[in-house]
Specification:
Organism: Pristionchus mayeri
Number of domains: 1
Protein name: Phosphatase
InterPro entries: Acid_Pase_AS, His_PPase_superfam
Distance between the termini: 29 Å
Keywords: Signal
Largest sheet: none
Signal peptide: 1-20
Number of helices: 3
Strand content: under 5%
Helix content: 40-55%
Length: 75
């Protein structure tokens, strides 16, 4: 479903540009940055202590991904 939404949005933007219309609005969708798991099984060795943060929180790598995405969007 998401793929179809993205493809149809892209086609609509391209058609608007080809016809010489002014782009008034653009929206981007992307996946969140790298996060810790939101749940584990009882004897999982990769628990909260392994990641150093709580369930579902951004990891340092995920924070870097968000920062880089922000830099790309500001250009």
């Amino acid at each position: 479903r998401l793929e179809m939404l993205l493809i149809s949005s892209l086609i609509a933007c391209i058609l608007g540009l080809v016809q010489g219309e002014k782009l008034l609005f653009a929206q981007m969708l992307w996946r969140h940055g790298l996060r810790t798991p939101i749940g584990t099984y009882s004897n999982d060795p990769y628990n909260e202590a392994f990641f150093g943060s709580h369930e579902g929180e951004l990891l340092e790598e995920g924070m870097k991904q968000h920062f880089i995405r922000g830099q790309q969007l500001s250009q």
